[in-house]
Amino acid sequence: MNKSIVQLGAVFVLAVSVTACGSKAPKPVSELALASSALKNAESSGAREYAPIELRVAREKKKAADDAMAKKDYKRARHLTVEARVDAELARAAADAEKSRLALKEAQDNIRMIREEVTRTSNAE
Fold this sequence. Notes:
The protein contains five helices and no strands. Helices cover about 90% and strands about 0% of the residues. It has a domain at about 25-100: Substrate Binding Domain Of Dnak, Chain:A, Domain 2 (Up-down Bundle), CATH 1.20.1270. Residues about 20-25 have low confidence and may be disordered.
């Protein structure tokens, strides 16, 4: 009985120790790298021109994450870096969508001009 109480106490101490160590959030180093990479991808995709608002929001969240890192508030920094990455991916997607929309409009305009030319040439003969 004494042995089981000691074992139970040891398990309790171990559980408390693990919980105490696990409560401190680690530095979100990989999340910061992913957010930075997503921002670069958004910028190279044309987000400055085609999705400036989404890009600005992503940059602001990344800066807030950097500030939280400086204050060693790693839980907040992790949360903000994830948001910054998602917002940067949104900016990239919005830029890609806008470029596609413009390309489609240009193709439709070209088709319309060709049809008009064909109609005009057909009527002239």
